[in-house]
Amino acid sequence: MKKVAKKAEEEAVEHPVGKPAKRTAKKTGTGKKTTGAGAADRATGAGSGTAEKAATGAAKKTGTGKKTAKPESHLAMVRRARRINRELAEVYPYAHPELDFRNPFELLVATVLSAQTTDLRVNQTTPALFAAYPTPEDMAAAVPEELEEIIRPTGFFRAKSRSLIGLSASLRDNFGGEVPGRLADLVTLPGVGRKTANVVLGNAFGVPGITVDTHFGRLVRRWKWTEQEDPEKVEADVAAIFPKSEWTMLSHRVVFHGRRICHSRKPACGACPIAPLCPSYGEGETDPEKARKLLKYEMGGYPGQRLSPPPNYPGSPAPPLGAG
Length: 324
Hints:
By secondary structure, the protein is mainly α. The protein has helices at 2-14, 24-27, 36-44, 50-56, 74-91, 104-113, 119-132, 136-140, 144-151, 157-174, 183-186, 194-204, 214-222, 231-239, 247-260, 288-292. The protein contains 16 helices and no strands. Helix 6 packs antiparallel against helix 12 (194-204). The relative contact order is 0.15.
């Protein structure tokens, strides 16, 4: 027991605890509205040690003190979850779907293609795809081998080709060549599940939805919002925490954070602006300098995933296929 106490004291010295999470908004600049590159700078602690302060403030939350923390009540979890959402809104005021699209059909096709690949690879592939097949009628009539060759860079191109031709034929035959705006209709299309349907509904039709992809599921489990693994159960648990009006943007913010900071294998805990609110702080690199080297996309000074990002995106556009 003395060894345990001594170890806890050493950890407390190594990770000094400031005031609890109430200071997070001030530390991450959330008391002010941020846009563009300023938000990225605040998120990574550029020039002000923001991330270092946020990370060290997480020590008390993660049990590095002497006393064992009491189990978190459901109400406390809900409050913490909503606080995280507010913090992420300040860190990523430019959060958006990272697939390039100009209409519901293009978003539907791009989302189907995004399975088991990156949005960047999809965005580099779809310009040629939509130049050849701009409408559901065109894609439904595609020669499979020719369509497969275009989408080959996205992987699983034969299965995806069947889905694209099948959903296009269904749109042509059952929906007048238009993408339906109801989840019940969307999930009848070949290759379209709840995740794809929610992406389309939220971003093409303004219908609130929670998109449970691999990043979303990983982060909400790290944050202890749910223990579920099944995407539909995760969706239900998270939907119960937030008002419906927040669902779509919450999805974008969580996915953005997962892709840039809270990675699967090497989360950059030491550069995370919401570290004091995270019960899993310490799973990744806690040294601020080392953590900053793990940041991706605009947070790390690299191009984003969209060839045509929104005007308020602070990073650089992605290069087209074959460039660089």
